[in-house]
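New to this. Explain these tokens.
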Amino acid sequence: MASIRSYKLDSGKRRWKVSVYVGIDPKTGHKKYVVKGGKLTRQDAIKAGLI
């Protein structure tokens, strides 16, 4: 499952980030996510997250 969200920088510019669930960490048993951010467009965030 992936989530794409926009956020604002302090300068007022908008950026996009994608968060992808990659499974359970076998060492800790916690959920593991990969987050990639700083993308200029929503389409760039989708490509970065391989959705």
